[in-house]
Structure to design on (559 residues):
């Protein structure tokens, strides 16, 4: 009797959770299967032949995928550097100085998230055409940076705001200059939050497709663009492997994000 | 110690004028201004640009040629937003009110996996999953839940909705469940002690208090989905399609910036209306 009540109690939960797991992980399993499928034809439910032939092809040093991977990482690194370079001073000002239009300024950086981006990219491409920036790494970095700024500014501002003013004041009182106090006290304390924002920017740039498609293609072929052309060309294995390469950093960050962002920083984002 | 400080020290750098913070802000503002705000303005102006001065031809052509696509886009994005909202409330609600700690833990560990996965990867993963001979149909047939002749391809508008929900649900749930977790438990416990069902507690106590967070999550999801190009491009090639595909087509195949910008303006207005509805709603709440 007890056991049967237990089953009646567990079964609906187990079925619902299993269905949800199927929905969440099914597509990912599908990617993994395709990446190791050397032959998968209808009506086989599963690949009829497994192997790493396509992985070898992708990871050949002279292969296009490796070139795209390094280019993507290079662009994402430059974007992160640019974003941090302009965001750290700006975020400090937003967190610690008295600004008249503070709310408005914070809102400006949110704009790229609040408007459909595609029409903007079209016109960026048009402007870049006049400056010869189309199809250059520089051009792609600038567009990615405009989009990533919301993360670096908002999170870094929250990180600076979470630091007690008295700490910097104490350093000033014992004779440190404003810049020294910032460099030796405030910046190290805000570093975890800034690092988290850097990862956001890096991932955003690594994964970005639409802007690169309009501004960078065909000269700048990042990994998402390679994935797209492999998929459009019907090469399911190469597309699946490229997708998995892009997936790994995203999933790792998802698992780690709460360690990087402390609750007291998160609670201040956007304030 | 703090009270002993006679006057607050200047908050900006030593002897700096009040311009200093604005100087610190200038480079960041330049990047977002030059590479987002300015092109956004060009997009609006471009919608009214013709060979002989300002014109409404572009908007006319956009509505004439792409009326179905516009409707299709709005329906897809609205349906996805609604499903995302329901899913986020259901998951968040269970995480807040669920009685079984183990089930809560499993759900919490599971729902967020697609959080940072890019749309293009989601599209590629879904493409093989929901096709006629995809892994989903094959598994359902294999378990015996579905006869083989029921297998159909979802690679059309339904596939776009499924992909959008798969990708955006974790984001919305994270915001909604976070807000629910931060609620004061006293009200919930009082209602529980009075014998209220969990459904009543969710609808009557939890949702009203996190309505603002739900709206923020949904507005951001709506706007994001409005401008995704890769998902409709990869999931469903057939017509009607989403506005983003139409815009890309006007540019890449025809070099027609006027119509593309007019379509962009329409997409921006649709997003703007949603955001406006939200702002009005939250202003009304603030006034209460």
């Amino acid at each position: 009797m007890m056991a049967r009540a237990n089953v009646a109690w567990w079964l609906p939960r187990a079925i619902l959770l299993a269905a949800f797991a199927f929905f969440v992980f099914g597509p990912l399993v599908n990617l993994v299967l395709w990446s190791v499928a050397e032959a998968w034809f209808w009506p086989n439910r599963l690949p009829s032949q497994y192997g790493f032939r396509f992985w070898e092809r992708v990871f050949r040093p002279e292969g296009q995928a490796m070139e795209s991977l390094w280019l993507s990482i290079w662009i994402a690194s430059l974007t992160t550097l640019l974003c941090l370079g302009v965001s750290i001073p700006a975020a400090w000002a937003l967190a610690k100085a008295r600004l008249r239009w503070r709310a408005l300024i914070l809102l400006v950086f949110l704009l790229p998230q609040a408007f459909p981006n595609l029409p903007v990219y079209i016109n960026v491409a048009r402007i870049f055409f006049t400056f010869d920036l189309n199809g250059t790494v520089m051009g792609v970095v600038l567009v990615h940076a405009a989009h990533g700024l919301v993360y670096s500014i908002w999170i870094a501002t929250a990180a600076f705001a979470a630091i007690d003013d008295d700490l910097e004041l104490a350093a000033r009182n014992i004779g440190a200059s404003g810049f020294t106090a910032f460099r030796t006290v405030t910046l190290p304390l805000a570093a975890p939050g800034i690092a988290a924002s850097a990862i956001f920017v890096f991932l955003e740039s690594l994964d970005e497709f639409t802007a690169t498609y309009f501004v960078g293609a065909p000269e700048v072929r990042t990994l998402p663009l390679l994935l797209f052309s492999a998929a459009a060309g019907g090469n399911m294995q190469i597309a699946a492997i490229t997708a998995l390469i892009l997936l790994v950093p995203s999933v790792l960050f998802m698992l780690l994000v709460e360690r990087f962002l402390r609750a007291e920083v998160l609670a201040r984002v956007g304030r | 110690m703090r009270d002993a400080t006679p006057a607050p020290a200047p908050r900006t750098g030593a002897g700096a004028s009040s311009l200093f913070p604005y100087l610190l802000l200038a480079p960041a503002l330049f990047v977002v201004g030059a590479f987002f705000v300015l092109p956004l303005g060009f997009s609006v102006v471009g919608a009214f640009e013709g060979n002989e001065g300002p014109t409404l031809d572009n908007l006319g052509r956009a509505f004439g040629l792409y009326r179905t696509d516009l409707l299709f886009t709005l329906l897809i994005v609205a349906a996805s937003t609604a499903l995302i909202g329901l899913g986020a409330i259901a998951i968040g609600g269970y995480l807040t009110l669920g009685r079984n700690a183990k089930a809560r833990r499993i759900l919490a560990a599971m729902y967020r996996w697609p959080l940072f996965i890019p749309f293009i990867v989601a599209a590629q993963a879904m493409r093989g999953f929901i096709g006629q001979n995809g892994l989903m149909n094959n598994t359902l047939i294999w378990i015996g839940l579905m006869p083989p002749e029921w297998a159909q391809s979802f690679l059309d508008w339904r596939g776009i909705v499924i992909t959008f929900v798969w990708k955006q649900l974790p984001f919305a749930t994270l915001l909604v469940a976070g807000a629910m977790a931060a609620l004061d438990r006293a009200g919930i416990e009082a209602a529980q002690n009075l014998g209220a069902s969990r459904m009543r507690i969710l609808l009557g106590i939890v949702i009203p208090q996190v309505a603002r967070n739900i709206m923020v999550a949904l507005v951001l999801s709506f706007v994001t989905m409005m401008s995704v190009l890769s998902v409709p491009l990869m999931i469903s090639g057939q017509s009607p399609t989403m506005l983003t595909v139409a815009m890309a087509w006007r540019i890449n195949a025809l070099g027609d910036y006027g119509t593309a910008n007019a379509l962009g303006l329409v997409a921006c207005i649709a997003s703007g209306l949603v955001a406006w509805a939200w702002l009005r709603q939250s202003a009304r709440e603030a006034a209460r």
Notes: DSSP finds eleven helices and two strands in chain B. The radius of gyration of chain B is 25 Å. The longest helix of chain B spans residues 57-97.
